[in-house]
Design a protein that fits this description.
171 residues; five-stranded parallel beta sheet; alpha/beta; 5 strands
Amino acid sequence: ADMDAAGVEKAILSIPAKHPEPRLLEFARAHPERFAYAVSVDPRKLMRELWRLEELVKSQRVAMARVVPFLIDLPPTHPVYYPLYAKCVELGVPMCVNAGVPGPRVPMACQHVELVDEVCYDFPELRIVMRHGEVQAVGMHVHRPAAFGHGEAEEGLRALRLIDRRWAACR
């Protein structure tokens, strides 16, 4: 009812890849037309975390995988992320990357928006959703539109449509 009152049709709920809250999973199962998941992944956990992500994509309505570089103080260009990016391409799941100035008072160097450009270069098939990307993100959409949309800058600027397309493809 609160979502309806606010004019919100759908929402993406964040869950960890390891041990997602069963109550949250059940809640979304009861309302599949309204909710999907952003699965937070710790790339340092390597294959165990990738297998967890894959299992969730197969069994739940997963809209995207998600990483927050400042939490582990590793930039998105660090090699530890690359198996995750490859798995997202394989699964057809967009990758959400926090970029720009973090909310908490922590060093922001590992979240510089420009670092996402290198990821786009190394993984041209990877679809990326930047979170907290600030003004530089707009330039990224124009510079690497295929990563953010259908190959046109105008589409890239509407990256949220990617989430909606992924929503429609959720199992």
